[in-house]
Amino acid sequence: MNERNRHPRTAWWVGAAALGLCLAACQPLPQPVPPVGQPVPPPPATPAKVELLVFAAASLGDVLPKVAAAYEKQHPDVHVVLNLAGTQQLRAQVESGVAVDVFISANPIHSEKLHDKGLLEAPQMFVRNRLILAVSTRSGRVKSFTDLAAQGRGAGREDPARHRHAGREDLVRKIRANIVSYEENVQQAASKVQLGEADAGFLYLTDAAFKTDLKVIELPRPMHVEAFYTKARSAHSGHAAEAAEFLAFLARRPAVLYLDEAGFYPMGGP
Amino acid sequence: MNLSVDLSVPLEKFVLRAAFELRGKTTSLDCIAGLRRPQAGHILLDGDVLFDRDAAIDLPVAERRVGYVFQDPSLFPHLSAYRNVAYPLKARGVRDRARVEDLLERFGLAGYRNRLPEELSGGEQQRLAVARALAAGPRLLLLDEPFGALDAAARPIVRGEVLKVLEEQGIPSILVTHSFEEALGFGPDVVVMEQGSVVQWGPAAELLTQPTSPFAAALAGVNHWVGRVEPGAVEPDHYRVRVGAVAIVVVADQEPVGQVALALAPDEIHLAADPPLDSRPNRFRLVVESLAPEGAAMRVRLGGPLNLTALCPTTVALDEGFAVGGDVTASFEPAAVRLC
Amino acid sequence: MNNRAFRWTLGSLGLLYGSFLLLPLAALAWRASPQILWSELMRPETWSAVAMSLTSATIATLVTVAGGLPMAYILATSEGRWTRLATTILELPLVLPPAVAGLGLILAFGRYQLLGPLLSRLGIEHVALTRTAVVMAQMLVSAPLFFRAARTAFGMVPERYLRASAVLGAREATTFRLVVLPLARGGLVGGALLCWARALGELGATLMFAGNLPGVTRTMPTAIYIKAQSDITTAVTLSLLLLLLSVAALLAARQVAGEAAS
Questions:
Q1: Which of B148, C4, C109, C164 shows the greatest Cβ crowding within 10 Å of its Cβ?
Q2: What total of structural domains would you count in chain A?
């Protein structure tokens, strides 16, 4: 075959390949999937069901699937799809236009920001959680909060000095000197304490619940740090009624029981 | 494979002439060098035990002081010619610049001391390989077809150069080769191995005149027949030996009896196109099967009532118009045929 | 297809593939901010992460070369079922997710794990969450790259040189030093560079086993990963910095290796 015949064909080939690559690159991101390690909700039994997209902070990962299951039992026509990740990550997804019906934040700032942008309806207070010191029962070197200032190796996700603790700066400085790792997430921090690699770790109460090999020690008053969870309906939810019902369901039994069991406590007080 | 070699070699230059059983001779050399372990027996060199199965002695390769040049020169590609020759000295922590320079000089490589092996010709590489082997100060040098990879024109030249140095240095050597002329040029003794066993061992001339087997004869290029003696002399000291359909007249002092082997050198045979058969003995009308030039001569293979190979001057072959398929008359003197 | 068309097709496909590889790097350079790059360069924390990355990767590589070289040689020059088995096991970390490698390290060297009591008796209280742990994590993940390259390099040294060396009176150790190492050098240096680059980029096993403490165990990849969760621009800028440093170091290493070769 001669050359003149060949070249256009080659060009076609390359063009098609380039187009393919471009298409692959331009395709919208698939619907959010639960990160690896999170429970995957079962597929809907019938396609006619309403799919309720719930974005929630990863720390709710143990309890929300139970709540969702209970909700689906009461509402057989609804299938709850959970997307569990760091609140910041979830916020970025919503900001980039990913569809959502219910947004549960571990930090009021993120839901407020989304509300300000008109993406969420006004957030409502949901539950609370608090920072505690988890000590390793394996190592047993740290038995009280003040122990950690003197000895041992601590781990946590964030710098304890980030929070207010009027009058205890000296103690905090000593504790900071004994921190050997700022873990990427609380689960990692918890496992380091469980394994005894760290003698103690700053965790949220709910991260320490049901964990073996560690003991919860409350932080002294001035260092008390609380996390507030908020819940909100999307301003553009296609299933507004179901979303509102789900928000209400979160405040009723059995949802409150599950939450309580996991260590979350209601806004009123512990 | 089952190889049995029984060589007790006096330490003077001699030739191990290999048969076509390639593994046999390489295995022999490997065992002597210590690269391979024989299953039984012993190897002695100059009174030293290199290997003795029964006494559980197996001297490590590095301690045998047996030089070994492979068919492939196997020069270290990252070292210059000088460093290649100096290698065996360096391996023993010795520095002897004069010795290295002397060896390079002897093999005509003094000008190439800084070249890498890949920058040398095939002949230069092989000379360098021998120089390197000699630098180790071997008690015995094994040469496994070292000239086999060279082209036909370079082979005799390189061989001559290497031979000259080996003679100067007086190192006992064993050469493995498929070429009979190479073996003849190398040393006084020839060993013929067939199927991994030694079949003949002695002076090279003996192989030419008295091959002990068709195989040895074929190696030497000598005609070899086995026949039965017809009782009674044809004339004084002349006897008739029946080989297949023909009879060959031989000369012997005493009457041979029974089955005998006959050997006839190819250049003892006279070929002519025309002369018809007459009553004289040892004249046969045969068919030319192949013609192969060999230097100034022509090797002519003949078939018919008798199979034989003759060597005749090329001019004769051309003048007489020999051609494959044509008839020729072959004749030879009864005295040229050897009984063995 | 004629030769020109063939070469054009392959060339275009190669270009396409090359752009796919280069695009993420270009995007990093595009998104990085010069101001942030400057302010990050001014922070001692950045430099401690850079220094930690460079030193730990270098130590990991040196230890790997020292330990992997003999093993690679032994395995390259032996044959049989056990050799194959050992080779497979030693190269296993190649397919191991880094997080699994980190977990394995904790379970082996953790304070209350397999070797913990023994180490404790030797006076070593902690291995996990220390600088040593950073090096160990990098080693476990990157060593197979060197090991594999070394084994291949040794395996490619023709046996006839070893035989030649032996009959010239050299013992195996001498042959190894004078023949095998020089002939395998190219592959060994390449493997070491690959190993170093992989160690420099190690994240998963490091986070798992060594944790993250700025100024101590924080490496560039950890810093980038942690930053990426809160401040993308800084993360991008640090990535670019790491990229530039790695390229510079690799080029320098190649230069040094190239000079040594000639």
A1: C164
A2: 2
